[in-house]
Design goal:
546 residues; alpha+beta; 5-stranded antiparallel β-sheet; 17 helices; flat; disordered N terminus; Sig_transdc_His_kin-like_C
């Protein structure tokens, strides 16, 4: 066959030259903007359509974006991008295939697809952009002329889409490499800044020749070493002025695992060395002089604090032991005073003058108040000294509640309060220390009446089973003055009340709630409180029923 038989049709020659030019242009771009412009130019020259759009998958945003297009306004382009996933571009992207609609009016399923364009669409052509089975985008064409797109258009568009996929993937890989390189360079700069700023030093050397290949860090200059002079020098000569450091390097180069603290004049250096896979030995030096000085001072301070703590504990134990031992000697005289005043009132009140009776009653009231204060101090001292012993017994709750009501009734009547008892019938069984339970309830109910005036104080008792164990839950609720959050955080401390004004207005040692907490916990229970100023307080504690 003659060469003339291989002649190429001028139209085909033009197409081949155009495709070659377009391929060269697309392959030569280095950024997404230039890439989009080349694709738009190629589609412009090869496809005679009113609407041309290039949708590419934005991996950062996780959506299809319109990177290039022709034939629509900025508003129409934005609308096309916003609706791309729900319309033809998204459909072709999700299920990669050629979508060709020769005439929309002859395809019932296509007539419901409203276009973002202002003209009437009669023909559509969508082609997926692929690179090694990875879907990277969609090219879309539309025309107002039915049957506009031929097999030749489809073939050309297929060529453009394949070329687009290859170049876009290369661009994405290049951008990712650039990001990684930028991140690595940033990290290296930050690491260098850290090494230059911190009092550390890095040395790398050949274990055989002990020649230094890396010398970095402010720590070298603090030791009086020039990093530039160390590079390439033998460690034996470079570190000759620092015998301890030189010997440590020699031992590490010989294969010893070295991690120790070196005394270098007035400085203390932490030295660690290890060989890495490349065969080189890397040594890290860290100036810990200030840290050692601070640790020594901290050790001395801790020793002083421990000594002071031991002395305080001994003093507290001695105080608690003394008060616990003096319990009988302090309570007996007061009980005698109270007994004799009651005897005087019983025998001589009918014949005595009103003033005499009032004086005796004041003596009795003062003695009872003093006995209550002493009892609080002695109870807490016995608990702190470990001398308070529980005596569990089966408690008759009915009798116990009656005695508690009698003890609290004077305070209730004095403040004009109403007492509400909310308990189950029959009363549940309880085995605990009766003295401790009575003290807890008297403390809580006494406080509730003391801080409530012309209001209500309620005691509720409920039985619950948790994790197979019976519990008795006691709730003491009042409508009194209440407490704030800062006050609530202090109320269970020894010798502490909500604030100083409470102590001045209502009196008391501030030990009642501390003793209550200790009693509840000694019996294996717990206590909590909620309160709001001007509304009232609610104390809830539970005890094991058995």
């Amino acid at each position: 066959m003659s060469r003339s038989g291989l002649a190429i049709d001028p139209a085909n020659r033009h197409l081949i030259e155009l495709l070659s030019s377009i391929s060269s242009g697309i392959a030569s771009v280095n950024d997404l903007d230039g890439f989009a412009q080349e694709i738009e130019r190629a589609l412009d020259e090869l496809c005679d359509a009113e609407y041309i759009a290039l949708y590419l998958w934005d991996f950062d945003a996780g959506r299809l974006r319109t990177f290039a297009g022709r034939g629509f306004s900025p508003a129409e382009r934005a609308e096309a991008e916003r609706t791309a996933w729900e319309r033809h571009p998204g459909s072709v992207f999700r299920e990669p295939r050629l979508l060709h609609v020769p005439d929309v009016l002859n395809d019932q399923s296509q007539q419901t697809q409203n276009s973002a364009r202002s003209f009437v669409v009669r023909a559509r052509l969508f082609m997926p952009i692929l690179c090694r089975d990875e879907v990277l985008g969609v090219i879309g064409l539309a025309s107002g002329t039915p049957h506009r797109f031929t097999d030749g258009d489809i073939a050309v568009l297929g060529f453009i889409s394949k070329l687009t996929g290859v170049v876009y993937r290369q661009l994405l890989d290049r951008i990712e490499r650039q990001r990684a390189e930028t991140s690595l360079a940033t990290t290296a700069r930050r690491l260098q800044l850290v090494v230059d700023a911190l009092p550390i030093a890095l040395l790398s050397l050949d274990p055989a020749t002990r020649r230094i290949s890396l010398a970095e860090g402010a720590g070298l200059r603090q030791l009086g070493l020039d990093p530039a002079a160390c590079l390439g020098a033998c460690a034996d000569q470079a570190l000759a002025g620092f015998p301890a450091l030189r010997d440590a390097v020699q031992r590490a180069a010989a294969g010893d695992v070295v991690a120790e603290q070196l005394a270098m004049g007035e400085r203390v250096i932490s030295f660690q060395a290890a060989a890495h896979r490349g065969g080189e030995l890397t040594a890290l030096l860290f100036d810990i002089t200030d840290l050692r000085r601070a640790l020594d001072e901290l050790t001395l301070a801790n020793s002083d604090l421990a000594q002071a703590r031991d002395q305080a504990l001994e003093a507290t134990a001695a105080k608690s032991s003394f008060l616990a031992a003096m319990s009988h000697e302090l309570r007996t005289p007061l009980n005698a005073i109270i007994g004799y005043t009651e005897l005087l009132l019983e025998e001589h009140a009918p014949a005595a003058s009103p003033g005499f009776v009032a004086d005796i009653e004041r003596i009795a009231a003062s003695a009872r108040h003093l006995l209550g204060l002493i009892n609080d101090v002695l109870d807490l001292s016995q608990i702190e000294a470990g001398k308070f012993t529980l005596h569990p017994e089966d408690i008759d709750l009915g009798a116990l509640l009656a005695s508690i009501d009698a003890a609290c009734r004077p305070g209730q009547q004095r403040r004009g309060n109403r007492f509400v008892l909310d308990v189950p019938d029959p009363l549940p069984a309880l085995r605990a220390d009766a003295t401790a339970v009575r003290a807890i309830l008297i403390n809580l109910l006494g406080n509730a009446h003391k801080f409530t005036q012309h209001g209500a104080v309620t005691l509720r008792i409920r039985e619950r089973v948790e994790a197979g164990a019976r519990r008795l839950v006691f709730v003491v609720e009042d409508t009194g003055i209440g407490m704030s959050e800062p006050q609530l955080r202090r109320i269970f401390d020894n010798f502490t009340q909500a604030d100083a004004s409470i102590s001045r207005r209502f009196g008391g040692t501030g030990l009642g709630l501390a003793i209550t907490l200790n009693f509840v916990q000694l019996m294996g229970g717990d206590i909590s409180v909620t309160s709001k100023p001007g509304v009232g307080s609610t104390f809830t504690f539970w005890l094991p029923a058995d």
